[in-house]
Amino acid sequence: MKILLSLFLISTFTSCSLGSKKIADKLYYRFNEPQVIMANPDFNVQRPSAMGILGNRPMVAQKADGALLQLSHNFWIDSPKILLQNYLVKTFNVSPEQQDKTLKATILKLEKKGQTSQVSISFTLIDGDNNTLFQKTYSQQQELSENTMPAFVASVSKSLEEITQALAQELKQ
Q1: CB 109 within 8 A of CB 53
Q2: From CA 151, how far away is CA 103, in angstroms rounded?
Q3: To bridge 163 with a disulfide, which of 35, 65, 138, 168 should be the other Cys (CB 3.0-4.6 Å)?
Q4: How many other CB atoms sit within 10 Å of the CB of residue 143?
Q5: Residue 30 burial by Cβ neighbours in a 10 Å radius (0-12, 13-18, 19+)
Q6: What sign has the CA pseudo-torsion 107, 86, 156, 70?
């Protein structure tokens, strides 16, 4: 009887250990470093807002049925709102001086959909009296070079660069 019980316990423990999977590492990403496009503009950059789950650190992917899914092992190193503010401050070389104008941004899309990245950001420039001086939404969709998170991050960074270049051109006019 003891032999049967021992064999049962050994087979139970070995069968449980054979089915276990290695836990995946959590990976963290950030936007690429921007190039200065416009030095010392006459506006401050306010902390951007984001639509729903897009402001959280987990990366977001769009499923085939259109549902959004927060990924459980791929994260932004900080909230995309903070990453975007830092990106814009560096891109426009914003000085810490108080300006009368404020650039506001809202992240509408920052997601991976199959083999593409989708980025959509709405910008509003307001004056000291809260009058809207400029408002426009920029959207970019790019094919990924390969279906990986590093390729997705590179694609998002390229989209951000193109969006901020277009924004800078329009703000100069």
Answers
A1: no
A2: 29
A3: 138
A4: 10
A5: middle
A6: negative
Residue 86 CA to residue 31 CA, distance in Å, equals 10
First vs last Cα of the chain: how many Å apart? 89
Which H or E run contains 107?
strand 101-113
The DSSP symbol for 48 reads: P
- Whole-number pLDDT of residue 64: 86
Burial letters for 97-121: b for 16+ Cβ neighbours within 10 Å, e otherwise? eebebbbbbbbbbbbbbeeebbbbb
Residue 89 phi/psi, 5-degree rounding, is -60, -45
One-letter amino acid for residue 108 of the chain: L
Helix (H, G, I), strand (E, B) or coil at 80: helix
What stretch of H or E contains 71?
Answer: strand 68-76
**Would you write out the chain's pLDDT as a tens digit for each of its 173 residues?**
566 555 555 665 555 555 556 667 889 999 999 988 887 788 999 999 998 888 888 899 988 898 988 888 899 999 999 999 999 999 998 887 778 899 999 999 999 999 999 999 999 999 999 999 999 999 999 999 999 999 999 999 999 999 999 999 999 87
- Give bridge partners of residue 125 from the DSSP assignment: 103, 134
Please tell me the distance from the alpha carbon of residue 84 to that of residue 79, in angstroms, as a whole number.
Answer: 9
Stretch (H or E) spanning 158: helix 149-172
pLDDT value of position 160: 96
